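QUALITY CONTROL LOG
STEP: pairwise intake check
CHECKER ROLE: data steward
CRITERIA: each record must contain a sequence immediately followed by its structure tokens, with no blank fields

ENTRY 1 OF 2
RESULT FIELD BELOW
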Amino acid sequence: MKIKSSFGPSYKEFEIGEIVFLAQEKPLKLISGAEIENFPLAYQTYGKLNADKSNAVLICHALTGDQYVASTNPVTKKEGWWNWMVGDGKIIDTKKFFVIATNILGGCMGSFGPKAIDEKTGEPYGINFPVITIQDMVRAQNLLLEHLGIKKLHAVIGGSTGGMQALAWATLFPHKVKLVIPLATSYRHSPQNIAFHEVGRQAIMADPNWCNSKYPLQKKFPASGLALARMTAHITYLSEAALQKKFGRDLKNSNSPVANQLSEKSEPLIYKGSSSLKMVRNGDLRQSPNRFSFSFDREFQVENYLHHQGSSFVERFDPNSYLYITRAVDYFDLESDCGKNLSDAFVEFAKNKEGKFCLISFSDDWLFPPSEAKKLTHALVACGINVSSVTIKSNAGHDSFLIENEALKNTISGFIGCS
């Protein structure tokens, strides 16, 4: 089934891929206690399911990702976010595997989320949508697998928030998955990461165009708040080394390729001197004794880059979904869920004779550092699980799992192909 949806400042309409309505006979009870039924879950598939339905691989997307892993995104028109990883003859080979990717519960690319219409009011749910968790997302994915007739996954794989979903699969449905491959993630969200998320949420809710979550009814959109939330978050996705290498302290108007790529179409006028108030173009600053504009316009390339990330994000994501998904990530804590002994979370998975783990971390990821994967590895080993743990040397920070990397490709290829 295919439907149309819309969001963004222009409320431009786009067509979503496959959608199935789940929990039609029995409601899905959320951890919050709320129940949802007959709700949509959007998904994409790649490859063919074999006769015994044993070749299914579930790919879980990150915080603001989507189901378009290896196909064109209908909103951005860009190729899939893991196009180099998934496809015919690629690492996750669609000639061999049947790949499933869902838009998570709470998302804004077709799945049930806060922009869905509440049948009782005829209006978008907004903040009346039930609060969700990572575990709720996974339970919804399990309903999809039941709908498709898949009893056991060959593998579940995901990075960041997607990695949390992969971990939740091992704890909630330990006998329904063979290989678990979490990348750049953790068994819990740290206090520092929760703090960054809260800044983003407050930026959205402080925007007067948020309208207490009812902006669609007012034909408004909290673009400034959402852009600021994205700018703040994006800092955590990079590393100091990556920022230094890509931007350094270069000015926005330098002749570097990055500056030229991100520069605005128009060059704003600035003041040169304080007495004569003589006006010059930004381009003339390189000939002036002082390189700076002495204003609060974007001065450095890194500032321009963050603004670019923010402005492009508002065209493809829903602010209320951002509130709900970040809160779901904040609630994730497998250690506390099982009474402070992390190993207890995986006791049932240890009974899965086919069950194996491959944990992948990145050397300069400070959002989910390798030390988090190390503790998780120890917990898995303590309960007798077959686990491989790899830290890949990188210089792109947390986003390394999204960037084509031979070491990453070799690691996943070697593990997902094992029987």
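ENTRY 2 OF 2
RESULT FIELD BELOW
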Amino acid sequence: MINQILEDLLAAAPGAKATIFLDTDGESIAQAGDTTIDIKLLGAWKEIHLDHIKDISGRLGMGDVDAVLFSLDEGNELIAPVAGEYCLLLFLSAYADLRQAIAALKQAVERLKKEIE
């Protein structure tokens, strides 16, 4: 079911290239999409960034982190916490519609929460 959620996310977000569902250690649980990029390595690295951002946000009293956008020359990356220490990372082309991508990511996060509970 997790693989289907990831495939649905890619289909719902025009311009999405790949997605990966990660555990607390940044290890891949499931992935979908373009396999020419090393999403396992990038996922582990971005999971570390997300942990730091969540810690800083908490210490500053800014509330919970819903998602983080990394905007790069080659495209964008959206990462969102799922439940506990799980997270979902979505790789997008530079021309992807971010509003659609965020909406699709939020829907996938909710489905994953139900799946892992």
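INTAKE CHECK: passed for both entries
DESCRIPTIVE NOTE, ENTRY 2: The chain has three helices and five strands.
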